[in-house]
Amino acid sequence: MAYSDWWKKSVVYQVYPRSYQDSNGDGIGDLPGLTSRLPYIKDLGADVIWLNPIYKSPDKDNGYDISDYRSIQPAYGTMDDFDKMLQEAHVLGLKIIMDLVVNHTSDQNKWFQESKKSKDNPYRDYYIWRDPVDGHAPNNWGSYFNGSTWKFDETTGQYYLHLFADGQPDLNWENPQVRDEVWNVMRFWLDKGVDGFRMDVINLISKPAGLPDGPKAPNEKYADVGKVVADGPRLNEFLQEMNQKVLSKYDVMTVGEMPDSTPEDAIKYTGLDSHELHMVFQFDHVGLAGNADKRLGKWNDAPIKLVELKKSLSKWETELNGKGWNSLYWNNHDQPRAVSRFATDDPKYRVKAAKMLGTTLHMMQGTPYVYEGEELGMTNVHYTKLSQYEDLESLNAYHEFVDDEKIVDADSMLKYLSYKSRDNARTPMQWDENKNSGFTSGKPWFELNPNFKEINARDQIEDSKSVFSYYKKLIDLRHNSDLIVYGDYELLDPEEEQVFAYKRRYNDETLLVISNFTKEQVTRDYGQSKGKLLIGNYDDDLDMEIRPYESKVYLFR
Ligand code: TEU
Ligand code: CA
């Protein structure tokens, strides 16, 4: 059966349920809370909600460690609450896609509890177990969350593999029984009526045969596991099996989270004839900003260079055009807040800067994602103390680099955390100016950003000049334009260091997008005087003058 490409014309809104809306005063966001906010998401104009994991979990990695794929985390509510939420969303015309986390489970999952009991347990091969080599871990892979990817288990004297935390053992996809279990989990949710999946690190599921050591610089302790495991030998085969046995039977949307993936890989997964996934969610542009000390990985506070950002985003625009499909995003629950990272959260420019980023992204080819609070221009939280952090990635990195290996001093690491930590995205949603910003009547699980009196939904919904109202217009433009959805893309002036300008073309129409990424006014002529202004973030248009963080879009027919 052939389905239409509604997912190409959609805008996705991402909800991190823990921080969205609490309904019962326990300080934790939940499903009834989300249900009560669905009309807000509808008002914004989003079509699809990507819901971060809500399954039963010991929450070592906020739900990305699932102990039971068929039940709801009690703090989020009951299955009944889920069904009501889904039904309510559908009544409003909103689709719900679930987070499918099947590269790994929690170590509390029944499958792993069985697997670790003995070498001949029927679940043993659900995971990846290896003997020690010379009394050490079987290879040199370093976990995404620091330390080795191997953990020794006394019971059977073997190591198990975990690309993420040691509480997140990797499933063995070579085992057909594991794949059948995953297909059944997918059917369980699809039969309830969910509208698709965002698949967590799905390009890491096929490990290279023999699990060989990876390349490693002499001063590094471990090899970068992403470089060894991403886009493994059987990945396309596994995704095709998933499509054939499950996905092809439902009209749903699928997006594969793909760290360390290339456009060539993405075309294989999302190409017209691939029968795999609809779109990729890749990390090129958020992985930018190099560090002098590679051992620190993503941890630095180097601002992103606009020339590199343009190159990265444009590469995906042009290489996937007509061949594959990409997701467009500035931030999610794993990334700092967009406005703080890619522009400025200086109160003098914040509103302009947030709208400028929105314009730059929403006029591109791909499916745009709005992460909760981005539509308000929410900012990084700017913590100064380690005790304020909650996220295990941030805490592990601090302990490894500052305490154990002593390769960075505490003050610098705290600066890096305040710029890059995932916790920046996880502070509760800012609904109004009241206590806890309307997120909870109790004690919030995580401190709110103290700027909620200045930045909150209630103020912005009523204000036609707010970031929220501007995002509504951006989304509305896409819904009414094949040019924005399907047009070709051309980057203008690649080496220009202050302005991001590009064109889109479709049939006889051309769109011109001009964004100033700096707080200086500049003069640029891209022929805009002959176009019709579609949208802009200043009240008037000074033609060739481009003001601080100004962004404007012109149509030519
Ligand atoms: O993230 C996958 C991933 O590649 C992470 O290493 C990501 O780059 C990192 O969090 C950035 O700081 C997914 C989920 O989105 C993340 O929340 C989970 O922690 C991770 O998988 C493990 O399931
Ligand atoms: Ca709650």
From TrEMBL:
Cytoplasm listed as a keyword: yes
Compartments reported by the entry: Cytoplasm
The answer on whether this UniProt entry bears the keyword Cytoplasm reads: yes
Q: Which CDD domains match?
A: AmyAc_SI_OligoGlu_DGase
UniProt cross-references to SUPFAM superfamilies, sorted A to Z: (Trans)glycosidases (SSF51445), Glycosyl hydrolase domain (SSF51011)
GO CC terms on record? Answer: cytoplasm
Q: Which residues form a coiled coil?
A: none
* A Pfam family recorded for this sequence: Malt_amylase_C
Q: Out of the domains of life, which is the source?
A: Bacteria
Q: Which GO terms describe its molecular function?
A: alpha-amylase activity
What keywords is this UniProt entry annotated with? Answer: Cytoplasm, Glycosidase, Hydrolase
- Any one GO BP annotation for this protein: oligosaccharide catabolic process
Q: Domain Glycosyl hydrolase family 13 catalytic spans what residues?
A: 14-426
Q: Family membership, please give it.
A: Belongs to the glycosyl hydrolase 13 family.
State the name under which the record lists this protein.
Answer: Trehalose-6-phosphate hydrolase
What broad taxonomic lineage does this protein's source fall under? Bacteria, Bacillati, Bacillota, Bacilli, Lactobacillales
